Each structure stands twice: as C-alpha cells, then as structure tokens.
Here is the input.
Amino acid sequence: MMKSHLIFIGAPGSGKGTQAGKFVADKSFKHISTGDLLRAEIAKQSALGLEVKKVMDEGKLVSDDLVIRLLQANVDLAAHQYIFDGYPRNLSQAQTLDKEVLKGSPSIGVYFEIDVARLVERLTNRRTCGNCGAIYNLISKKPKITGTCDQCGGTDLKQRADDKEDVIKNRLQVFQDTVSPVLKYYQDLGRLIKVDAEQSPDAIFNLISSKV
Ligand SMILES: [Zn+2]
Here is the structure.
C-alpha cells in the first residue's frame, strides 16, 4: 500500500492539533502549518522569504500562489509523509494543492466531525493563564486550585476575547460555509474519512492509522 499524506480538516477545538502531535511523535509524520512555514522562510531570508516578508510588512494577505510556491519549496513528498493542518481552507486551495503540490501523490482528507453545541461549550470554557500562557478547560482540564495556574501559581486565568460565545458561533459558521465544498471535493474523489471528534484521542489515532 502506498503511504498517504493526510489533510486535516476541523474547526478550532476539534482536536486535530492533538492528533497532528501524535502522528508526528509516533508515526514520524511531518507537520505542515503554512503559518510556521511562512515564518521559517522569512527567517531563512531566502528570495521567497523576502517576498513573503514584503507582503506581510505591507499588511496584505499572503496570496494562494505564494503559499503554493512556499509548499513546493519545502515539501519532499517522496521522502516524508505529511500532515497538512489548516490548509487548504477553501475549495480553490484544495484543487490547487492537488494540482500544483501533491500531483497525484496519495492523500486523504480527514474531517474531525464535532457537534457545534459541544464545540461552543468546549471553547467557552477555555481559560488561559495571563502569566505563562498555560491553557485550561473548566470542564475537561481544570486547574487543581480554582482560579490558580498549576504551572506558575498565577491567578490571572482569563477567557480570550475570541473565545466568547457569539464570536465562536460566528467563526464556526464561517468555517462550515467554506469547508463544506472542500469536504464534498474529497468525498467525490473517494479521499475523505470522517472521524467522530468526540471519541478518545487514542481511538481517533487508531482509526486514522488504519487508513494510512
Ligand atoms: Zn501560569
């Protein structure tokens, strides 16, 4: 069986970051985050990096074309198995990724399905330590002492502005609207698996592992 690259698709809070970490640690996948790639390329001061820096310094969005060139310059599809995380974000990007980067190299879209009400609950209960940045959840990962950070003892556990309920609901709606055509695209090509993001991380890991 040919080894497949994985394209993780899931709303913020759906647990795809956790799975990406497990696949990197246990299966030697390489994790591709376009944000990280952009920063690394700028740090390298390559011609491409300077071009990216210019766009970002001007406060503009990095174009799809630039992202594709960045991927082409940084992935070696024959040497590694990759997880694309948070990219593609829309149908056009999914098509271009296939055509310009993957070029027939086997890949599977993995959709982390989660109930919106559950996700809202999970995200609105997230708290971040204002001192050290440790992340808690008032339901699933409470600090040992209420209101106090386990890591640093700080007492400034706060909710991020973008974790407020109406902001989250709006963000999820935008996500659903743009991601639906992406899911249909992979589905039509027989390259989509859906995982129930409510399962345990180990169960999800085993399920995805069985497909690659
Ligand atoms: Zn802290």
Remarks:
- The longest helix spans residues 165-188.
- Strands lie at 5-10, 30-32, 82-85, 107-113, 126-129, 135-137, 157-158, 192-196.
